Amino acid sequence: MAKLFAVVIVLIAIASAVPIVMHMWPMPQDISVHGHLIDEQFADTMLEAGISFLASQILLAYFIWRFSSPAPGDKIKSFPGGAMGLVLAAFLLVGTEVLALGFFGTKAWASVYFTPPAADAVTVQAQAGQFAFYFRYPGPDGTFGPIHPDQISEANANFFGIDTTHDQDSKDDIVTAELAIPVNKEIHLLMHAKDVGHSFYVPELRVQQDFVPGLDVSVHFTATKIGRYEIVCTQLCGLGHYNMKAYLEVKSQEDYDAWIKQQAALQ
Amino acid sequence: MHDMSAHAVGHGAPTSFIRKHVFSIDHKVIGKQYYALALVAAVVGMFLSWLMRIHLGWGSFAIPGLHLLSSSGAPGDVMTPEYYLQLMTMHGTIMVFFVLTTAPFAAFGNFFLPIQTGAEDMPFPHFNMMSFWVTFVAFMVMVAAFFVPDGPSLGGWTQYAPLSAIGAVGGPGQGWGVVFWAASIGIFCIGQLLGSLNFITTTLDMRCKGMSLMRLPISAWGWFITSVMGLTAFAVLMPACILLILDHVAGTSFFVPTGLVIGDHVLPHSGGSTLLWQHLFWFFGHPEVYIAIVPGMGIVSHVLITNMRRPMLSHRVLIYSMAALAVLSYMVYGHHMFVSGMNPVSSLAFSFPTLVITIPSTIIVLIWLGSLYGSKLRINSASLFSLGFVSMFISGGVSGFFLAQPSLDIMLHATYFVVGHFHLVMGVAAMFGIFAGTYFWFPKMTGRMMSETLGKAHFILSFIGAYCIFMPFHYLGIAGNVRRYQAFTDDYLIPLVPVHKFITIAALVTGFAQLIFIYNLIYSRFKGAHAPNDNPWQGTSLEWSTATPPPHNNFGATMPIVYHDPYQYSVEGAAADYIMQTSTEKVHSPDEEK
């Protein structure tokens, strides 16, 4: 039984590593400027976690195989270096490595959260509500009109609660159900929740950020590849959570300009 | 240390059925009651996971009889999206609170902590009885949520506000379902606070003559450290639950900010904070992970030592590392909130202690591995589950390297990667700790042996099965598979559905393998071979010096006196390959603490 168990451990360890090594279910392609930092960090972490995983599982299996059928006269042997050696190994090998990973990983985090958006970034407002995302563009005046929660009306398609009659800034605002953005241009997304917690997750964009009711949150990013990508909600928001999604349309500057004109005409 | 002969705990043996088996103040009976409760809860929790898994693999499949559980939740026996979330919430809640907290900590701890410390009972036996019955009531309240209008809450075991705080407008189960949930968990906290108080005082005040703290077995240390965590963590969750209930029934707005709009109506709440709930919940929630796993670490270390016929390389290092996990667990909770909208600087501040926690975890694993080296390992059901625990803890631990880093959490947060991580490290590993403890202590608890053949079959199926279920979760997470979805309709998720089908089949097979355990447990309880003697595994700690099952006051007429460290195995020059803690045999042992 011991030897069978040891073999099972090794087989499971190898079988677990195969899909990772073979990229059977890889991360979605990266379409962002900052994404490569996350991906490199991920690869480094995978290397260290993979080595730790395989080495310790195989060692466990070997010790089970080797020490489970002692001969009658065998004596207990102590691991060379004893407990202190292992404590040192934990600090020096694993502790240092993992802390170094964390330290270098701050670069990827900083690129998303500690760098302010560029002055010429395109500002878009995103609103999450059960179970849809809506987006608002400020229009030619570059300013968003105020939100009046009491005027939010699904029935009248006034998703943001804007008052185009009284608020000058709201008159040219453009509200859409999809997020179209120009390629290679930084986007500053101002996020707020209408009702409960939601999240904005576009795996290809390497962006995930919660919408927090009562708080204004923002992220900024630059998409580098034209295409259509799914925006999904990752914060459990109710019965329709699984189906809460929108599309991110990354367009060429010309297509984007044409699209925004077309949307303005539809308001 | 304490002379207990004339103190309040010295209660006489009960004579009536009710005081003996129902409202008992005997810690051993209470331990068994906790175990039975955890077993029932585990069966319910596993059954719910089967329903969820079937739905995830084959969403339109009619599960015969499901409408009996809820006619509105499963019309025509097909689960609705909201009912999936309701079952998921109950699965998570029941498993975390009523299985992973009660079995390794409250069940085994109650039965064996007083015996391993050489006490005749816990110092507050009536509080102890209350602790179980309060927990029982909490479970009843939780299960009752299935029967309130709209059914149980759909908000997940974390019950994030404001979804959990705005009442029925938030969706099915978000009214009374949440109130029942919060009431149950609040009551549960009271039970655990009473239990923790008893565990701490038993360890510090009730030890028999000669039992210094360092002479306590590692399992006793596991329960002691856990009880300190329990006292501080549940004390935070309980008021959080009370505030949540007040948001429902008293018109308060602790967790609901101003200006939320549902169904085109502005909610009347104002001034609350949604992140407040997350901070309170995770200040409890992360220590809770260690409340679930540290008793298991203690149990499997104890079982392994007995079966390796040697002490661990260092008793002290193991204890200090477990204590370090407990202390750090309060400093790392914010890693659940990296993308929650809290200040991104906080994310880094929470990231580093999370990375540091890999050091004590690694030390513990290396001590286990290093101690296996050169041992005389016995293979039996208990040692197999202990070794399985080590394997699962490693697998679940390395994925923590990723989740400790905020930059990687951007990709992996709220995906199946997280689900795989915590199921391996806190779910499966803790369950394996429970199984190891059961196979190991069953003879002492009942006087009978469990079937080794069935135990080994149960082990190998569970070990392979658990990996087949939870390892693919990581691949799904890397591919961006979001958790808490009842169906995968997104374009990029559809290709992943076959993986979900594979996991479902693995979950059903592994689940059925647990029936072997339940059969073994029940059959052996009544028909199993009698334990050959009081110490069938040739152990050294105090539970093996007393009669089987232990008498009402644990040790009969004479209370034990301890002369040795807990694990004197394979000592050169000794009469046998083990020296019991109560043995007066004088030997020189290099491992003996000075």
Annotated CATH topology of the largest domain in chain A: Immunoglobulin-like
The domain count of chain A comes to 2
CATH top level assignment of the domain at 95-102 and 121-258 and 270-359 in chain B:
Mainly Alpha
Biggest chain pair interface? A-B, 105 and 112 residues
Structural class of chain A: alpha+beta
Biggest sheet of chain A, in brief?
5 strands, mixed
The CATH superfamily of the largest domain in chain A is identified as Cupredoxins -  blue copper proteins
Q: How would you state the average pLDDT of chain A, rounded?
A: 94
CATH class label of the largest domain in chain A: Mainly Beta
Query: Number of helix segments of chain B?
Result: 17
Summarize the structure.
The complex is a heterodimer of chains A (267) and B (594). Chain A is built from four helices and ten strands, in the order H-H-H-E-E-E-E-E-E-E-E-E-E-H.
Could you please describe the fold and organization of this structure?
- The complex is a heterodimer of chains A (267) and B (594).
- Chain A is α+β, with helices and mostly antiparallel strands.
- Chain A folds into 2 domains: 2-68 and 81-113, no CATH class; 122-266, Immunoglobulin-like (Sandwich).
- In chain A, 37% of the residues lie in helices and 22% in strands.
- Chain A has helices spanning 2-21, 35-67, 82-113, 253-266, and strands at 122-129, 132-137, 174-176, 179-182, 186-193, 198-202, 207-211, 217-222, 227-232, 245-251.
- In chain A, strands 3-2-1-5-8 form a 5-stranded mixed sheet. A 3-stranded mixed sheet of chain A has the order 4-10-9.
- In chain A, helix 1 runs antiparallel to helix 2 and helix 2 packs antiparallel against helix 3.
- The longest helix of chain A has 33 residues, at 35-67.
- The mean pLDDT of chain A is 94.
- Chain B has helices at 17-22, 27-57, 66-69, 81-117, 125-144, 176-205, 218-249, 274-308, 315-329, 344-356, 358-372, 381-398, 400-403, 406-412, 416-446, 452-478, 497-527; strands at residues 261-262, 265-266, 568-569, 578-579.
- Among the domains of chain B are: 95-102 and 121-258 and 270-359, Cytochrome C Oxidase, Chain A; 379-428 and 451-528.
- Chain B has 594 residues and is mostly helical.
- In chain B, the strands form 2 sheets. In chain B, strands 1-2 form a two-stranded antiparallel sheet.
- The longest helix of chain B has 37 residues, at 81-117.
- The interface between A and B is large, with 105 and 112 residues.
